[in-house]
Amino acid sequence: MKNRISLLVALCLVSHVTFAASSYVGKVKRIVTPTIIEVSLSDEEFITLHILGLKTRDEQPCTKAKGINGKACEAIKAWLDVENFGVIIEKVDGKAMYGDIVVGNRLVSQEIVREGFYAVDSSKSMSHYMFEAEAEAYCNYRGIHAKNLGKHEVAAKCSRR
User: Fold this and answer.
1) CA atoms lying within 13 Å on the CB side of residue 50
2) Which of 61, 72, 130, 142 has its CA 20 to 30 A from that of 14?
3) Taken in order 97, 101, 107, 113, is the CA torsion positive or negative?
């Protein structure tokens, strides 16, 4: 009997940890900024999702975005130009929702970093796959890392990988 109770408690704890994030299917309603996307969950319901794990800086609304922000908005629009995609909500703070979007087998946050549009915010994400995506962008001088092209220390660091 004692073993059954222990097993039941353990299963409850595992299911709580495993299913802490909520998953939905949605489609794009509006891309506000490269890290804030309005997602329609149904005809009547939509959420504003803040993409987690990205180091945000002077973001511009996509309607006015230029430079690297404009390119990020265009890329996100192209990635989300699908019928439906997965929405993972990991944190809710008041009306703000934080999480990620899954298109096919790709996470939008990881693609944003891999293309060099944003760096990883290590105070909010310690995900290995995000740091690998950032290293790929850094070593290939993509996006925000293009300024490092021709720097010996960057080439030396990347050659040791």
Assistant:
1) 15
2) 130
3) negative
Token pair 């096919």: residue: 104
Chain length of the chain: 161
Distance of alpha carbon 11 from the chain centroid: 30
Structure tokens belonging to residue 157: 């660091």
DSSP 68: H
Which 3 state secondary structure label does DSSP give 45?
Answer: coil
At residue 85, what is the residue type?
A: F
Write the pLDDT tens digit of every residue in 55-87.
987 788 999 989 889 999 999 999 999 989 999
Q: Which residue has the tokens 């004692």?
A: 2
Q: What is the pTM of this model?
A: 0.80
In 35-142, which ranges are E strands? 36-40, 46-51, 54-55, 85-93, 96-103, 106-107, 119-120
The whole-angstrom separation of Cα 46 and Cα 114 is 28
**CA count, 13 A, side-chain hemisphere, 144:** 17
Strands 36-40 and 22-33: antiparallel
Residue spans of the chain under pLDDT 50: 1-20
